[in-house]
Amino acid sequence: MNDDPLESVPIHRGLTRRNLVLGGDRELVLFSGLIAGTLVFYAFEIKAALVGIAFWIFSLFVLRLMAKHDPMLRETYLRHRLYKPWYPPNSTPWRDNADSQGRQYRDPWKL
Known about the structure:
Order of helices and strands: HEEHHHH
Strand content: under 5%
Shape: flat
Radius of gyration: 23 Å
Oligomer: single chain
């Protein structure tokens, strides 16, 4: 075996890919399918079936666009919502906030 520290190790794409169903995020696609299926099979009306099918097609289109942009967009959005109270309102990186302004926001390291 070669003990070269710069030896490259292949990383197989199948191990690093996200689990996508029908081209979109797995949980969101299955949940939108559940909602559309509920509309189609529970209402027993033609109008509800058409709305359910239209909802399914539209949501699948949007979810595929989201996954094409970033396969982890749902997790990124949820993390953004979690950390939103901790974002300081700085207009630029060079702005100096007053001490009184900084005390009104929670410190993310002091949970």
